[in-house]
From TrEMBL:
Signal peptide: 1-20
This protein's name: (wild Malaysian banana) hypothetical protein
InterPro entries reported for this sequence: Osmotin/thaumatin-like_sf, Thaumatin, Thaumatin_CS
Keywords: Disulfide bond, Signal
Taxonomic placement: Eukaryota, Viridiplantae, Streptophyta, Embryophyta, Tracheophyta
Stored Gene3D superfamilies: Thaumatin (2.60.110.10)
Disulfide bonds: C29-C255, C77-C87, C92-C99, C148-C245, C153-C228, C161-C191, C195-C204, C205-C215
A biological-process GO annotation: defense response
Amino acid sequence: MTRVFFLLSFLLFSFLGALAATFMLTNNCEYTVWPGVLSGAGTAPLSSTGFALHKGESRSLKALAGWSGRFWGRTLCTTDSSGKFSCATGDCGSGRVECSGGGGDPPATLAEFTLDGSGGMDFYDVSLVDGFNLPMLVVPQGGSVGDCTSTGCLADLNGLCPSDLKVVLSTSDAGGEYVACKSAGGEYVACKSACEAFGSPQYCCSGAYGNPNTCKPSSYSQFFKNACPRAYSYAFDDATSTFTCASADYVITFCPSTTSQKSSDPTPGASNTPPLVLRTAAMLLRISLAGLALCLCL
């Protein structure tokens, strides 16, 4: 019934406004991902709010002009004996595969969009403000105006995550699916933000720290920024993390390869390898050499 409602809503709004973009979601992970979709208040919902993507699968969703919302990936999802559906990371609390208006529980990697915004531009970003649970890449396709730059987080940060931010799931609860590096206690399945881990105003940019003059990057947010230089690392990380494009469609890839990013990134430069790949690789090498919470998956 819920699915029928969303489909009818989408068809109704199709008569009232033009389609602005097609989102293609692709799963390159070695495990199943259940994308979640949350539409912003006052915007037409997409045709689905949650579904399964097995390894190698893709699915497209169409959005109308003015749509805003977010996408994320849920991992290690199961259905219990009562029929309740839940996920170890990114769970939206609906008890079903469809999220039906629920957002993803942090930590979760987010792709956020506002279509046909100021000046007719799309605004988009990949955010680690709510933490990280899997690599993600957003690539505009066919954009005519704006920087139309790919953005995301190519690195799997779950094993590299600072110890006080790591989320560990017991091996028995992981259900046999490979998600991240293993520890003696189980699987590293996500990396919390400092706000989620500690709840302090200086990490959450709240209270007296609720403006960019008082809320500055912390060592924790800098970890995310060094690994994923184009992604939001904390609330006021706008200058290097929000991108614009017009008249584009968007490919959202979970667990992207560096090859797919290289072939689509329009960033100019002398090297055939874009800065996003180079900076991510350099950061991972620095962490490896320093021995900072490095996990080797063999």
